[in-house]
TrEMBL record:
Belongs to the LysR transcriptional regulatory family. This is LysR family transcriptional regulator. Keywords: DNA-binding, Transcription, Transcription regulation. InterPro entries: LysR_HTH_N, LysR_subst-bd, WH-like_DNA-bd_sf, WH_DNA-bd_sf.
């Protein structure tokens, strides 16, 4: 039995090209080789196989009976090799390039956030990717997804912007907190008395959640406005302000006694977190792959996250 090597496959491709072109001379351009080189290659192939494959002379080029059989077998072999290569490419397919991901700030302490697990799952696929992470406010994230600077963003987006698609992935719970220097820390109140003292306190709010937070506290206006969680925490720890913080983020200061949560059952906000993508744009493979992993890792009931979905 003949053992095929890489050189044999190369020679069989030369043979198939010669037959397709109808002769040695006609195959020179297709093979980018001179006639003498082609003749040497055919002689080598015939020696390897031990049969005469073709006749050429004044009567022209023609295959021998063995040449016809070898040509048919060659076409089957080359087709099988091509199919194998295509299947192998699918199996080993790697996503490459740069993925630009935006995230709202201070989600690192949230056990419900699917981003860490999604990132681990995505990277473990062996993709040759460069991950660029941008932390920003909801408005900044939406703007960057719209203009293409970000492929996707994850956060709480109270107002949905035209041109973007929002898919729910999880939710975040916020509570009202005071610092240890605030009067309500040492003398906590309840019910109507708590609302009265809240009304007499300085309230700091997140700009993108101002209406929700003030409505829940029954307060007309805020004394301070911030656009990120860290700034909010700084003002609350000062003792000069009350404000809503994500419970998971405030837990570190509650544990040390630097913060106290007030009326945890009554004064709480639940904020849906969405993944945002640009509407009407064909997503690159790198984005599709990340969204598949995000869908698998998020608590969205197993629903697929598809870019472009309303």
């Amino acid at each position: 039995m003949i053992q095929l090597h890489d050189v044999d496959l190369k020679l069989l491709r030369v043979f198939a090209t010669i037959v397709k072109c109808g002769g040695f001379s006609a195959a020179q351009a297709a093979l980018n080789s001179g006639q003498s080189t082609i003749s040497e290659q055919m002689a080598h192939l015939e020696a390897r196989l031990g049969v005469k494959l073709c006749q050429r002379g004044r009567s022209g080029f023609r295959l021998t009976e063995q040449g016809v059989a070898v040509h048919e077998a060659t076409l089957r072999l080359l087709a099988a090799v091509e199919n194998f290569c295509m299947d192998a490419d699918v199996l080993k397919q790697q996503i490459s390039g740069r993925l630009n991901l935006g995230i709202i700030d201070s989600t690192i302490t949230d056990p419900d956030s699917p981003i860490p697990q999604t990132t681990q799952r995505f990277v473990s696929r062996g993709h040759d990717v460069h991950l660029n992470v941008y932390i920003g406010s909801p408005a900044e994230l939406e703007e960057r997804v719209l203009d293409g600077r970000l492929h996707l963003a994850v956060g709480h987006f109270p107002i949905h912007v035209s041109g973007l698609c929002y898919s729910r992935i999880y939710q975040e719970v916020s509570g009202l907190f005071c610092g240890r220097r605030h009067p309500l820390d040492s003398h906590p109140a309840e019910g109507a008395e708590l609302l009265r003292q809240i009304g007499n306190s300085r309230i700091v709010v997140r700009g993108y959640m101002q209406d929700q937070e003030l409505d829940l506290l029954r307060v007309d206006k805020a004394a301070a406005t911030v656009d990120n969680i860290e700034a909010l925490a700084i003002l609350i720890i000062s003792g000069a302000y009350l404000g809503f913080l994500p419970v998971h983020f405030a837990a570190q200061w509650v544990k040390t006694g630097d913060m106290r949560q007030l009326a945890a059952t009554e004064l709480r906000l639940i904020s849906p977190f969405d993944v945002v993508t640009r509407r009407g744009v064909t997503p690159p493979p790198i984005l599709r792959a990340f969204l598949e992993d995000l869908s698998a890792c998020s608590r969205n009931g197993g629903h697929s996250i598809s870019p472009g979905r309303p």
